[in-house]
Amino acid sequence: MEFSIRSRNFAAIFWICLLALLSGFSIMKIRNGFTIETNVLKMLPYDKDNRILNEASDKFTEKLSRNVLFIATHRERDSALSAAAVLKQDLSENELFKVPKETDWFDFYFNYRFNTIPSSMKSVLDEKENFESFRSYFYRNLFSPMSNIYGEMLNKDPLMLFPKFVGSFAPQQDKNDYENGNIIIEDTASTTVLVSAVLRENGFEKEIQTAFNSFINKQKNKMSAISGAQINYTGVVTYANRYEERAKFETGFIGILSFSLVFILILTAYRSVKCLLWGAVPIFSAILCGLAASVLFFDKIHLISVTMGTCLIGICIDYSFHYLSEYAFCKDKWDSSVGLKHILPGISLGFITTTIGYTIFFFIPFTGLKQIAVFTIAGLAGAYLTVVLLFPLLFKKKDNSGDSYRYFKQPILTYFKMFDNKFFRYSSLLFLLLILITGLPKLSFRDDMAIFEMNTEDLDKTVNSVQELTGTKYEREFLLITGESQEKLLQNIENITEKLEHLQKKNDISGYLALTKFVPSIHTQKTGIDMLVKKLQAEKTSIANLFLETGFKPAVLEKLINDVKESQSKYITIDEWASSPVSIEHEKLWIGEIEGQYISAVLLSGIKNMKALEEIAIDKNTHLINNHSRISHLIKHLRESLILFIPIIYSVFLIILIIRYGFKKSLSMFTPSVMSLFLTISVLSLFSIEVNIMHILAMILVLALGIDYSVFQAESIENPSVTCISIVLSSATTIISFGMLALSMIPALKSIGLTIIIGISTTLLLSPLAADRKRIIRILQ
Amino acid sequence: MLLALNNVYADLSGDLFTGKTCNPTGMPALIKMYDNFNKEMISAEFIHKSFVKTLNKELLCRGKMIFIPDKGIFWETTSPYNQCLYITKNGEVFEKDKPDPVGVFRYGSLMSEMIHSGADKLSEAFELYFIENGSNWFLGLKPKKRAMNKFINKIIIAGNLDGKINKVSILGEEIEIAEISFQNHQSPPIEEVNRVHGIFNQK
Question: Which of B51, B99, B147 sits opposite A505 (nearest CB)?
């Protein structure tokens, strides 16, 4: 006996030390850069078969997250313009941003003007073309207003290649006005100036969002003080910000509310400050263990996982309740070890079944669910061990707490008596059967990635209006082009852009944006330069006469010939472009090298014929990516697999129960959970709620918790009435903590909340079916 | 170049742009001109002079212009190079037999904007100045959009009381950059009209 007490004390001390160690480890890891992820895509299922494309797609999304568009608005045009100028200056001085300058293009591309010869000019440089077409082309350029604006540069670039190249990026029907590279939009009420900038780092990173928010707040205050101009902004960072703010609020709200309600429950049920204070210890150790396991297994944890992890409070308090009920409602002489002995089989088996339920999450290729699984299993283990190892020491002596047993006794007794009445039981079951018959046929599923996205109508409105004003709206779908080398990649893009041009002419798409617009392949650059050299050599006299006829000095042609020859050995490369400021706005198109494959994205706009687009994406180097439909498809696949998986989990649970309790008792223990599962689906369907993957996952939890309750009941030989109270309290906390999720703005969390509310409530209401009603009624009476 | 500048300013008989801005809907000459644009098909020969400051010569091209109400302008350059452009009513400029709009010919969309926007809408895009001198009038336009301002600082349209335009002068910041004179205004022959109609209908 002495040895047993010693070893128990030693185990308790060991556990306290381990908890202290875990807190130190967690704090250290968090301080060393453990981050909270806000990118929805990062928690969604991943496709193991297309690892390179997934990685490329993730990188592209990350790069897209860096683009930010600032909107300065004022009723006076000059005030809007000066606000935009101040904003641009502040942006360029802030280390957070890269801001394109108007001179970037000239600084980079003027020296490469022969490398970017437009196709319209290449056609006149063709050997087969007569000189008249060259002459006509030359004159047309000179007659454009650009020849005058070009000023002295015309002598350096008499063929006006640089303005031609830059002009190819300007929209043909541009209704907007420009100043300092910014778009100006005027209406009768106000002037709006759009200033674009690019974040130097990932817009999904928390530090970046914090710095961005601080910049925005300062700018808003500054502008309202200077000119009264309104500063707004749009970009992925806006969404990430909103997502984080909301999830933070929800985590805090759910956490605080769960804590408060659990405390109120403990205080009401046990009427003891000791129970309240020590009863909460498993919650803290659960959070600590969950956090430590998360930082150990993952570099980042998704906000949704954190939000759902807070619901752990509702499950881990179950173990406390069972012990505290034993302690508080003990009628005989209290022995803390005996108290533990009474509840140990129940909570152990409960811990095993719940862990099995969550372990399934770990085998699903769904990053967010893995995080939830790790957090919750570690948390449950923490709570379980705290109850088992610390509670017998903490609750050695019974204090003079108030007895609330009688308050619970009467309603439970009444309910059990009602359930013991055949008429009530069968009519209830008939009623439930009716719900099943009317609900189940209406069952429909929703496999949409949108369930993980928050409702952001206001943000979408800003984005849509900006896209409408600027005329640049790119679709969710994009192409990923691969190549074994940078040159091969560029050639592959050029092949595909030829096909895209064709689609554009057929009006299957309205436009596209590809890397080769900025960096043609060396082959294309060389072809253009060679054609120009040949033309200048073959038609030198005619060109000299043309230059003379139009008023150029003879030296201009000589310089042109020399410049073209010099450019024959220098080509624009992706690396050079990407490291130059000229790439700031479009660097997102260049994804980089992944496992020996060079990858670039091609943006598409105005897709009207998806089939035509799919047809051009059939070769091994071209991939049409639609993250939305790809992930939705994966979600559907997972949901279908999970539905098939549920009977398997049930069978595992049933086998465990049969081994422990025999076939007949196991079946009766199983009935409430199974019925509650079907009832939950039916109720959701009756309210026209489409069942999604999160509903299914929550149903697995309902099942695990439902089995827990049956196990607690079955294992409670000494005090079944006390166990009943514990189960009521446990269900209440689970419904409270998970049910809060039903208030979430994130549909996925809402789905979990709703399922748990319906599922656990029905499990609790049906629990007398599994219990030894006669015995409980007798004891309660 | 200086000669060209003198030509422009000689027509003004005073400082066109120093006066007050005008309301074009109150100018009978402009009303007459827009009235003509709405109902008459006009053809005229044009001489387009371009003054590029880095070149030591003025550039000159000639051709024929046909205006068809509700369709647009057909602009055919015959010397020193051949080019057929057609400028649609909404300002798009196409080259004959080429599907894509021509980006560089900004004068075309400018002219379309001036002609098709109507007297009342003209003041939305430009500050307007107007003077009359005998049977001639001069309309001065200052673009309000800074994007256009980069290319063109001022435009002077010279016309007569019959509602015909004789000359359009386009001025940069300090210097005239182009001058388009029109002569031999007449109704185009029916075969010409049909030909141009056919081209426009392709779009």
Answer: B99
In A, which residues are within 8 Å of B91 by CB distance?
Answer: 173
- Give yes or no for a contact between B73 and B87, defined as CB atoms under 8 angstroms apart: yes
> Which positions 476-515 of A are in contact with B (Cβ < 8 Å)?
505
Query: How far is B51 from B38, CA to CA, in rounded Å?
Result: 32
Contact state of A154 with B146 under an 8 Å Cβ cutoff: no
Place of tokens 């990188």: A59
Smallest Cβ–Cβ distance between B55 and the set A164, A174, A551 belongs to A551
Nearest residue of chain A to residue B173 (CA atoms): A149
**ipTM > 0.85, yes or no:** no
Strand blocks (E) in A42-147: 67-74, 97-98
For an interface test with A, the pick among B104, B117, B171 (most A C-beta atoms closer than 10 Å) comes out as B104
Token pair of A618, please? 């059939």
Given an 8 Å threshold on Cβ–Cβ distance, is B51 in contact with A184?
no
Instruction: Report chain A (781 residues): mean pLDDT per 10 consecutive residues.
Output: 68 89 83 68 63 82 83 85 88 88 87 90 82 87 73 86 82 59 73 86 79 88 83 80 76 76 80 81 88 83 70 75 82 80 85 80 76 87 92 80 72 85 88 91 86 74 69 78 96 95 90 93 94 92 92 90 90 94 90 92 90 87 83 81 79 84 85 89 92 86 82 75 81 82 82 90 86 78 74
Evaluate whether B198 touches B54 at the Cβ level (below 8 Å).
Answer: no
Q: Does the distance separating the beta carbons of B82 and A146 come in below 8 Å? A: no
A605 part of contact set with chain B, CB < 8 Å = no
User: Identity (one letter) of the amino acid at A499?
Assistant: K
pTM of the model: 0.70
Phi, psi of A114, deg, nearest 5: -80, -15
Peptide bond just before B80 cis, omega within 30 deg: yes
With an 8 Å Cβ cutoff, is A410 touching chain B?
A: no
**Contact state of A143 with B101 under an 8 Å Cβ cutoff:** no
H or E segment to which residue B127 belongs: strand B126-133
How many angstroms separate the CA atoms of A34 and A764, rounded? 39
Distance in Å, alpha carbon of A147 to nearest chain B alpha carbon: 7
- Strands B42-50, B72-79: pairing is unpaired
Pairing of strands B154-160, B136-143: antiparallel
Q: Count Cα atoms within 13 angstroms, Cβ side, for A569.
A: 3
Do residues A413 and A720 touch, judged by C-beta distance below 8 A? Answer: no
Interface test with B, best of A129, A147, A176 (most B CBs within 10 A): A147
**Token output for B129:** 């100045």
| Whether the Cβ atoms of residue A164 and residue A121 lie closer than 8 Å to each other | yes
* CB of A569 less than 8 A from some CB of B: no
How far apart CA A353 and CA A351 sit, in angstroms, is 6
- Beta-bridged to residue A366, according to DSSP, are A45
| Contact in structure between B33 and B159 (CB atoms under 8 Å) | yes
**CB-neighbour burial class of residue A772 (10 A; exposed 0-12, middle 13-18, buried 19+):** middle
Helix (H) or strand (E) holding A454: none
Backbone angles phi, psi at A335, to 5 degrees: -130, 115
